[in-house]
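Structure, all two chains, one model.
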Amino acid sequence: MSRSQKKIDKINFEIFTLTYGEIVTTLLKDYEDVEEVNNQLDKMGYSMGIRMVDEFLAFTGLNKCSDFRDTADAIANKAFPLFLGFPAGIQNFDEKKKEFSLVLDQNPLIEFVELPPKYKGLFYCNILCGIIRGSLEMLQIDVEAKYKKCVLRGDERSEIFISLKQDPKKGDK
Amino acid sequence: MSVSESIWSLLLNEFVNYVVSSVSEPSEPTKEENNEDFINDPEDQKKITKAKLSNAGYQIGQKLADRYTKDRSRFREQVDIIRFLCKDFWTLLFGKNVDNLKTNHRGMWIIRDENFRPLRNLSFPFDGKNLKKFDLNENQIQIVQRFLYFPCGLIRGALSALGIDADVDVHCSLIPACEFTVISKESN
């Protein structure tokens, strides 16, 4: 398929990283409460996610995922490299509970970033959760995505915890 | 390392959306003191939106210009700076060179881009009457303008980091083409 071989336009990551940093700064100035900032970032991510899924399908030409494991693989090894230029790792995949953690080792978003102690509650990359939630919702997969650990808060690695809320509609299995 | 261009555009659009809605709607209607600060005048709203977005752009423009010129020798003339802006900087940010550059040799430049990246994915509903689809009416120009405050700031910031203190204005009447007017403050 020629469509899937088409290259997606790329830009240097620092443009994106700096823009994102500026947005978070603006949000922190506007809202005093870090929880509110987390929510707002999630909301922004959600609106981005519902648009990004179209592009994802157009560029990868991916077929339907047969189970949740496939979905996880598609996110970690197809979607992340396509949009953010690095693959994510999958950990603690639980077949029964339908949940897993995405491990982000080389996240370009947190380049140049240091969090002052007073913003300890902030999940800097919370926008990623929103994006994942938004794009999966467009595929009728209802998930909950939450930041569990973040390098910026002193954890060893960044982890996004994703769990399936309900069984997807038939056809997606 | 690189990321996809689309995720950047989407992020920018979300940012514009956020700023526009944060200015035009009170953020927390339950708090009364917030409502007092709330700006009702649409002209003022526009000004604040512009200030917020273009300041954000300014900060980023400065940092990027510093970053991308660190291995270059110092620019000798203003022309070199403008040439750098239109070729290298423009390509890095917007994926292409500018299409046309005009100057009056007295500190004013007009930069024209026929296919400006932040406007590329913008469209308006086709109203059935207007055959020239992308000729914008007054109201639509206002909307497009919002998406240009940030790039204006980027250019202003980059120029200021490279040593030209300038005002940058933008005009757009036919998406996705637009025209930036750069006026150096020194020359006046």
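The beta strands of chain B are 2-4, 100-103, 108-113, 166-174, 177-184.
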